[in-house]
Automatic annotation (TrEMBL):
Keyword Zinc: no
Subunit structure: Homodimer.
UniProt keywords, alphabetically: Alkaloid metabolism, Methyltransferase, S-adenosyl-L-methionine, Transferase
GO terms for MF: S-adenosylmethionine-dependent methyltransferase activity
Chain residue ranges for the region called SAM motif III: 186-195
Protein name: Gamma-tocopherol methyltransferase
Family listed: Belongs to the class I-like SAM-binding methyltransferase superfamily. gTMT family.
PROSITE patterns in alphabetical order: SAM_GTMT
Location of the region described as SAM motif I in the Swiss-Prot/TrEMBL record: 96-105
Pathway assigned to this chain's UniProt record: Alkaloid biosynthesis
A single GO BP: methylation
Region span, SAM motif II: 159-167
Length: 314
């Protein structure tokens, strides 16, 4: 696993891939991601609701199961606050893209908050269909739309959006440079870009890779969650710097998401969770089996929950 690489192959590999091999691996990865979310999204919505991402918890919170959905909303608000997204009627975002939109929870929330037009993209046809249905049911069909599309080749013109939002989709991207380049391309001059994603820890001075035992944890997670090789927060910052973006900043929110995975495991072990898992299929079951490794990765500081934000120059 090329842990420090960006723009890496879609699966942990030691041999060098030809361009054709790399394309084949990326297509296989995209198919796996789409099928994983086609299969598991209904189960997730049934148990956790419309937001398919971590919650943000204060360090002194006493967490009850009912608190987790409000923590997911808090994650959205904390990301907006960190990026200094304005609520001023003259400065608030009017056009938003949600890259890796799930079933559209963030899109609908942002559309209501700002009165903005929002476009969501996902690899999963099931997610796109459900997201559009929820938008219609919530009276937002005129503001929000969803489609199946590749984040590395977005179906939007240059400079269309003044808020570019990626909530926990970057970890699925096999080419991180192409990913952030596309986020930048569709951003309007002066737009804010928000990336909230799973990373591995930054390497220490003198290190060229993670330790073998750390790579072993990440490789097991990759195979079950359809993830390519991970990169660090520092890698993302360097990529954004290479694209001449401004006001780049990042933070480690690992401590603020710590209650999330124990809660997911607890719900998975409930009667509702077990029956939902069995109905959803093998990919979901395999994903559930590696959830304890997410907790282990966070506890051993190899996994980091990161936010990286920046602005496109005017």
């Amino acid at each position: 696993m090329a842990t420090t690489a960006v723009g890496v192959s879609a699966t942990p590999m030691t041999e060098k891939l030809t361009a054709a091999d790399d394309d084949q691996q990326q297509q296989k990865l995209k198919k796996g991601i789409a099928e994983f979310y086609d299969e598991s999204s209904g189960m997730w919505e049934n148990i956790w609701g419309e937001h398919m991402h971590h919650g943000y918890y204060n360090s002194d919170d006493v967490v009850e199961l009912s608190d987790h959905r409000s923590a997911q909303i808090r994650m959205i608000e904390q990301a907006l606050t960190f990026a200094y997204v304005s609520d001023d009627p003259e400065k608030k975002p009017k056009t938003i893209v949600d890259v890796g939109c799930g079933i559209g929870g963030s899109s609908r929330y942002l559309a209501r908050k700002y009165g903005a037009e929002c476009h969501g993209i996902t690899l999963s046809p099931v997610q796109a269909e459900r997201a559009n249905a929820l938008a219609a049911a919530q009276g937002l069909a005129d503001k929000v739309s969803f489609q199946v599309a590749d984040a590395l080749n977005q179906p939007f013109p240059d400079g269309k959006f003044d808020l570019v939002w990626s909530m926990e989709s970057g970890e699925h991207m096999p080419d991180k440079l192409k990913f952030v380049s596309e986020l930048t391309r569709v951003a309007a001059p002066g737009a804010t870009i928000i990336i909230v994603t799973w990373c591995h820890r930054d390497l220490n001075p003198g290190e060229k890779s993670l330790r073998p035992e750390e790579e072993k944890i990440l490789n097991k997670i990759c195979s079950s969650f359809y993830l390519p090789a991970w990169c660090s927060t520092a890698d993302y910052v360097k990529l954004l710097e290479s694209l001449s973006l401004q006001d780049i900043k990042s933070a480690d929110w690992s401590g603020n998401v710590a209650p999330f995975w124990p809660a997911v495991i607890k719900t998975a072990l409930s009667w509702k969770g077990i029956t939902s898992l069995l109905r959803s299929g093998w990919k979901s079951i395999r994903g559930a089996m590696v959830m304890p490794l997410m907790i282990e990765g966070f506890k051993k500081d190899v996994i980091k929950f990161s936010i990286i934000t920046c602005k496109k120059p005017e």
